[in-house]
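stuck on this one:
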Amino acid sequence: MKTVLTIAGSDSSGGAGIQADLKTFEAFGVFGCSALTVLTAQNTKGVTNIQEVPASFVKEQIQTVLDDLDISAIKIGMLFSNEIIDTVKQSIKDLNIPIVFDPVFISKAGSKLLNNDAIENLKTLFEYVDIITPNLFEAKELFDYDILNEKSLEVISKLPCKVVIKNDKITKDNEVLSLDTLFEKKNKKVFYTKLIDTTNTHGTGCSFSSAIAANLALGKSIEEAIKTAKDFIYYAVKNAPNIGHGMGPISHKKGIECLVKQKDFT
């Protein structure tokens, strides 16, 4: 069995963060382990408190796992501070395995979760990862991203890693579609699913990046991993359990069940 490590924050409501990552790993048949960077008191309505994990303990968690387990891929999520960013960078810089980085620093609503200096420091991780998965707000902050902005596309094309920008939408043949765009140097590929009109989207970004990591660990190409992850999220959102009084979580179990009916991912 392949083993995948998530380095990310904890969501006490179970919908996002390392809880979503571990549910995603389990869904795809890989063994998941974790290194916690931050603890949150949160539910579907929002975050009420955050406690940072000391950077030294983040390092010890990562190293202890790497010393014992044969890790096939890593997913990185919320890093929260400059100290943790630097610690994670030192921990991964010499590894030769697929690493997926979800640079969690702006929420779906557009609220910043990190200070500007820490956001700038996140960019120093790019040379050590295979792909980053920013949402539209994060891509705007990192690259001044706009699909029509040639300058921002030029910046992306020179990055040392691939980029998939998520959460865009377009209308095609009178149907609204969810759009993710993969940039690899000067090449571009788009991935579509139907856009579901729902508030049950809590943890979709975490689950998307961890699904990519799981599929890379299973030997899939980056394009195959992204396509599988996007389809998985579509089904997981479509079959969400409708719990909580805010942005509800998705169903990882139903997501994989529906995906398996469509194709064999193993």
